[in-house]
Design brief:
The strands form 3 sheets. Strands 1, 2, 3, 4, 5, 6, 7, 8, 11, 12, 14 and 17 form a 12-stranded mixed β-sheet that branches. The longest helix has 9 residues. Helix content is about 15%, strand content about 40%. It has 5 helices and 20 strands. The chain folds into 2 domains: about 45 residues, SH3 type barrels (Roll), CATH 2.30.30; about 190 residues, Fumarylacetoacetase-like, C-terminal domain (Fumarylacetoacetate hydrolase, domain 2), CATH 3.90.850. Strand 19 and strand 20 form a beta hairpin. About 45% of the residues are buried. It is mainly β. It is globular and about 55 Å long.
Length: about 250
């Protein structure tokens, strides 16, 4: 199943995508008891939005060995966690804005898990079962500010620095999915989630022992090697096998 959040004639709605048709729901697909309201609309007539509005965006750093090497990071003993503010969220096809205070803004394609149930101090199996579905994400980073600050908050938190979408897929196996990032049609990142240093069940369990994960929260699972800068006018695409493509331009 593919679930979408979209705008049609100035109204924000949720739906199930079937081919090129959207079966409209009576509320958020994360809401218990949400069901079709009888309305159907065409995908081509709407604007897709970020599929969820998370209370928090939990990110994982250094979760691929090759990316750790390219960034000169030692392999961490525990998962490395940081947060992006929900204000960084960006819709599919919307423009990533390069802030004036940064001279280098990088793409970081990632698999994103969308939580469907509340979990706290959960075992791995329980934590994984609480995931509603998966989408594509881009952990946009002001690399020069990350290096300057010595911590990641400013570099990761600018408005538009968290594109996600275009939809949430429920029938997806996160253990071995190909992931690629293309910049202006050229493949820059190409890896597979089987290369995670910390598999998703371990990640989610670990996070749940640090902070409660609520429905709608998203977990960005880390980026593979090949990160690099984006310039104004560039087009960046994050592709994940079994999910689809997240496309954005750079302003």
């Amino acid at each position: 199943m593919k679930y979408v959040r979209f705008r049609e004639q100035d109204q924000v709605k949720y739906g199930v995508l079937r081919g090129d048709q959207i079966e409209v729901l009576d509320g958020s697909f994360l809401a218990p008891g949400s069901r079709p309201n009888g309305e159907v609309t065409a995908l081509g007539k709407v604007s897709l939005l970020a599929p969820v509005l998370p209370g928090k965006v939990v990110c994982v750093g250094v979760n691929y060995a090759q990316h750790a090497r390219e960034m000169n990071h030692a392999l961490p003993e525990d998962p490395v966690l940081f947060l992006k503010p929900p204000s960084a969220l960006l819709d599919p096809e919307a423009e990533i804005e390069r802030p004036a205070m940064s001279r280098r803004v990088d793409y970081e394609g990632e698999l994103v898990a969308v939580m469907g149930r509340k979990v706290r101090e959960a075992a791995e199996e329980e934590a994984l079962a609480a995931v509603f579905g998966y989408t594509c994400g881009n952990d946009v980073t002001a690399r020069d500010l990350q290096q300057k600050d010595g911590q990641w908050t400013r570099a990761k938190s600018f408005d538009t620095f968290c594109p996600i979408g275009p939809w949430v897929v429920t029938d997806f196996d996160p253990k071995a999915a190909a992931i690629r990032t293309l910049l202006n049609g050229e493949v820059k990142q190409s890896s597979n989630t089987r290369h995670f240093l910390n598999p998703l069940p371990k990640l989610l369990s670990f996070i749940s022992r640090v902070m409660t994960l609520n429905p709608g929260d998203i977990v960005m699972t880390g980026t593979p090697e090949g990160v690099g800068p984006m310039r104004s006018g560039d087009r960046v695409i994050v592709q994940i096998e079994g999910i689809g493509e997240l496309r954005n331009r750079v302003k």
